[in-house]
């Protein structure tokens, strides 16, 4: 089985499964330009020189936002906020007490900041890791660092002990299917890119179960490791036996591969106490600065408040949460109020497939014509490199002018194809979308691991990201016209 995802590598779960199992290639750019999904349109399209002149009038405002964020009273504020939040709450897996505390924390903090804040109820999955361990007992004894994968079933209390079959691809597993019965399949797939390699984490258990495996251990989806396992969501296929599945470190996967190549018998004992409880009550957290002329029209900024149950969730996605809050704070502190409403949404249940965002979309899609731009930051808040954007050619021309306002921080590149689990449905329906592009070469070093802590974050980088986020959101929200849909 191959995985071909040409656009966002962090798709809603149902779309991820569809793309992975389908035979046709797919790009959101193509769907965006397809007449079938032009749900709404903005017929007012200014000529390019008029747009450029209108946007240039915001040069002074943009400089004021940048100066406040980088050199003024707000310097390092988003970093301090993130440190206080993550140090107080810790990680925040879907359905947990920590996530409840995080939502209450952010609601109170943004209220105290003078923003209009409310909570919107949603139902989210509640998977619990439980105690887990793995040990190689042949050809020698060695403890294996593991992290069970989200939605995995557990083992019997005594665990599962079986001989190991090590493979490097789904194709190899199919070729050696006769060897897999009763075995623990270890996937030692090389890291190519997240979008390609994540298929093993997502579907490895079901593919192994089809050929009779009793459990799977999957090499962590990361290009770099210091014996650190990475967790994430996995998806059981309908009609296929559900077997326990966990990620192991790159080092241990390669060790077992070498042992297997030397024809040595490998036996592993796996114990997992994982279980899935009934769906839990939760909330999307919403903060606003209401527009003075068109309060019903919305520019939406976002990050997701939940995380996995390891590390602090500082990078994924505490940083995205904090710069979305910070963008509103910068605008408020400068006494600015745009024509349209600026709305920061802190999603819940993103790591479980974007379930909070899906429910938000279902609740608000009847007002889709009033959504001007949807923005998401969920790839870290490292040094910003540019803005990714998906929209019509006319909207692209507007955004090319807007991003020029970031010249003081040397971030003027507008790229194609925005991405994000939580804004995907809006973009699919024709709403322009934007995502933050940062210097993310280290992102997957820490992603979904114990390494996702405040130590990864840099205060100056977060100031730069906050400034970009605030300038783009404010200017788009204050332009005379909404971004054209076609």
Automatic annotation (TrEMBL):
GO terms for molecular function: carboxypeptidase activity; metal ion binding; metallodipeptidase activity. Residues 284-470 form the Peptidase M28 domain. It is found in: Endoplasmic reticulum; Golgi apparatus; Lysosome; Secreted. The keyword Endoplasmic reticulum applies. Residues 1-29 form the signal peptide. Gene3D superfamilies: 3.50.30.30, Zn peptidases (3.40.630.10). GO terms for cellular component: endoplasmic reticulum; extracellular space; Golgi apparatus; lysosome. It comes from the Eukaryota. Transmembrane segments: none annotated. InterPro entries: CPQ, Peptidase_M28. The keyword Secreted applies. SUPFAM superfamilies: Zn-dependent exopeptidases. One of its GO terms (biological process) is proteolysis. Keywords: Carboxypeptidase, Endoplasmic reticulum, Glycoprotein, Golgi apparatus, Hydrolase, Lysosome, Metal-binding, Metalloprotease, Protease, Secreted, Signal, Zinc, Zymogen. Belongs to the peptidase M28 family. Homodimer. The monomeric form is inactive while the homodimer is active. This is Carboxypeptidase Q. It comes from Gambusia affinis. The lineage of its organism: Eukaryota, Metazoa, Chordata, Craniata, Vertebrata.
């Amino acid at each position: 089985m191959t995985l071909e995802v040409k656009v966002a590598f962090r798709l809603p779960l149902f779309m991820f499964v569809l793309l992975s199992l389908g035979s046709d290639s797919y790009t959101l750019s193509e769907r965006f330009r397809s007449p079938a999904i032009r749900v709404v349109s903005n017929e007012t399209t200014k000529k390019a020189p008029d747009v450029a002149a209108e946007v240039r009038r915001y040069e002074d405002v943009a400089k004021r936002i940048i100066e406040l964020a980088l050199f003024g009273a707000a310097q390092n504020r988003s970093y301090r906020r993130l440190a206080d939040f993550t140090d107080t709450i810790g990680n925040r897996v879907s359905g947990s007490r920590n996530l409840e505390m995080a939502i209450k924390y952010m609601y109170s903090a943004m209220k105290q900041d003078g923003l209009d804040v409310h909570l919107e109820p949603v139902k989210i999955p509640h998977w619990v890791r439980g105690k887990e361990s793995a040990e190689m007992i042949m050809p020698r004894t060695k403890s294996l660092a593991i992290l069970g994968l989200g939605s995995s079933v557990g083992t019997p209390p005594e665990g599962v002990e079986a001989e190991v079959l090590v493979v490097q691809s789904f194709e190899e597993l199919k070729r050696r299917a006769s060897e897999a019965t009763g075995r623990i399949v270890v996937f030692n797939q090389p890291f190519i890119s997240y979008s390609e390699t994540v298929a093993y984490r997502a579907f490895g258990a079901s593919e192994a179960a089809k050929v009779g495996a009793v459990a799977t251990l999957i090499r962590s989806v990361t290009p770099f490791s210091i014996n650190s396992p990475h967790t994430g969501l996995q998806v059981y296929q309908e009609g296929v036996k559900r077997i326990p599945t966990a990620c192991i470190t790159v080092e241990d996967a390669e060790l077992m591969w070498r042992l297997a190549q030397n024809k040595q018998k490998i036996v592993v004992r796996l114990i997992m106490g994982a279980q899935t409880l009934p769906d839990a009550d939760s909330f999307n957290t919403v903060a606003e600065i209401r527009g003075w002329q068109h309060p019903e029209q919305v520019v939406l900024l976002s990050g997701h408040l939940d995380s996995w149950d390891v590390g602090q969730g500082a990078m994924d996605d505490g940083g995205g949460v904090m710069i979305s809050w910070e963008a509103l704070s910068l605008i408020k502190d400068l006494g600015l109020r745009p024509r349209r409403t600026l709305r920061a949404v802190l999603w819940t249940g993103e790591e479980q497939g974007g379930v909070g965002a899906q429910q938000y979309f279902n609740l608000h899609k009847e007002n889709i014509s009033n959504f001007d731009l949807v923005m998401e930051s969920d790839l870290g808040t490292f040094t910003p490199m540019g803005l990714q954007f998906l929209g019509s050619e006319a909207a692209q021309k507007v955004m090319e002018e807007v991003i020029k306002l970031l010249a003081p921080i040397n971030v003027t590149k507008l790229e194609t194809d925005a991405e994000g689990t939580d804004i995907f449905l809006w973009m699919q329906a024709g709403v322009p979308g934007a995502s933050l592009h940062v210097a993310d070469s280290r992102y997957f070093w820490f992603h979904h691991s114990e390494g996702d802590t405040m130590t990864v974050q840099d205060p100056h980088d977060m100031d730069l990201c906050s400034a970009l986020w605030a300038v783009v959101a404010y200017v788009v929200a204050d332009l005379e016209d909404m971004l054209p849909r076609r």
